[in-house]
């Protein structure tokens, strides 16, 4: 779906969501910051699909605070539109995860927004740490859920 | 400004805020849940005006989780409109605080939304507690800031 | 599930949603205004289940601006918790709709929040109007979707 | 404050805002998408300082939909922290505006987030258009407000 900047297989997953009225603005499309909230939904469902949800990761003491986010706005989405959130996750160095995101209309595949988020891997106290072994295993073993 | 359900003087305060684009929706007015976020701005500025901010209250181990909220929607407010948030706070029993709110247009005084929030008083662990002495003193001594 | 203030059968529906990280706050539970956003998700899915979605209603020129909202906060909900949003909708007079809402944990049925929203029925220009015939038919014919 | 990618003087402005409780998340800092909402506050106050607010621009039929946004997360910000939002705006080609943003703590100047947004200039119907003369004049004549 997109070129990997890391040249390695990555775990991919897709999920659907509906645009909420609370996410629109007076221009009649979604407000720009909602793209980052939808990226979060994509990350959550992608990590769940690996077998270790982010809620579980936090319980194990591994947090993923954002370091960087970028969004390209490619098309409109209105209230109640059904969107597909496609996500590919991989390591970007030993202590970072990168999620590449593409949001499209579920029916027409028309593009809505794309971009990425870069995350540090930290312990519960917020100290940067190398990826724990189970996280490496989970992402390497991963196959995209249907 | 409004009848007190508690029949006692209460601490009153007003502040101003501007409607953000992120707070509008495709109906062209503010999205309904923003009223509760503006109530929070009013609570924050009202407690600061007492001399003990809510951030300071949390540090002292007194939290104010919501028990109940009610909003009447009275008029439209558009992006960049300047709003006045008027707040009156008083005790509602020994372990609760009630904030009565009225949001109006700063220029015309046309009504936007009104309502109240009811809060438990808890310690840092979330256990309900009686109002600490300093909070009683602060609210009783309070005079509305200019 | 709750007493009807209108003494008449109403259309009922339930849906599920997951708490997003963006919906939490530093107290570790959901931020209070999110309850109104979840009520909106419940309204949207309930109207869709009647056969006429709210997006379709808007296209037909019938809007449902909020007149009043009330929420009781009954329990905590954390990031990634799966919630059940139960909704019952009925007329409250000739030109108003009322949605009664109850949000619970999907697994334990522990309560999270409950309340209602009251909506005017207006035309596309925002003028109050009586409920259109098709809306009356849709709600009266309705049976709760499974 | 930052290098201009456009090699030309740009209109600069700063404003202050306080972190709302609604903008925090369970990690105890601001939720990542709030940075884009704060960028919007910065754009709004910067355009107002030019003498033509964005609300006025919309009335004149010139919209600024987002094309691209990027954020670097540089530090934490907690509820009630007072932040400085610094903004520099200039043209990026004949039909685009670029806002460069830096958010810091108002007291310590410690960095919180920085980035930019790129905006098309469109007419009220959403068609891309060249910058209107008055907008060029306003930005070129601009001096940073105190």
Features:
about 20% helix; homotetramer; about 150 residues; alpha+beta; 3 helices
Question: What does it look like?
Answer:
4 copies of one chain form a homotetramer. With 146 residues, the first copy, chain A, is of the alpha+beta class. Helices cover 22% and strands 32% of the residues of chain A. The longest helix of chain A is centred in the N-terminal third of the chain and has 17 residues. The interface between A and B is small, with 10 and 10 residues. Strand 2 of chain A pairs antiparallel with strand 2 of chain D.
Distance between the termini of chain A: 15 Å
Shape of chain A: elongated
Low-confidence runs of at least 5 consecutive residues of chain A = none
Q: State the share of residues found in helices of chain A, binned by percent.
A: 10-25%
Using DSSP, what is the number of strands of chain A? Answer: 5
Question: Mean of residue pLDDT of chain A?
Answer: 90
Specify the oligomeric state.
homotetramer
Strand line-up of the largest beta sheet of chain A: 1-3-4-5-2
Helix segment tally of chain A? 3
Q: Can you summarize this structure?
A:
Chain A is an alpha+beta fold. Chain A has helices at 34-50, 54-59, 133-141, and strands at residues 11-18, 66-73, 82-91, 96-105, 111-120.
Give the helices and strands, then pairings:
Four copies of one chain form a homotetramer.
Chain A: E1 11-18, H1 34-50, H2 54-59, E2 66-73, E3 82-91, E4 96-105, E5 111-120, H3 133-141
Antiparallel strand pairs in A: 1-3, 2-5, 3-4, 4-5
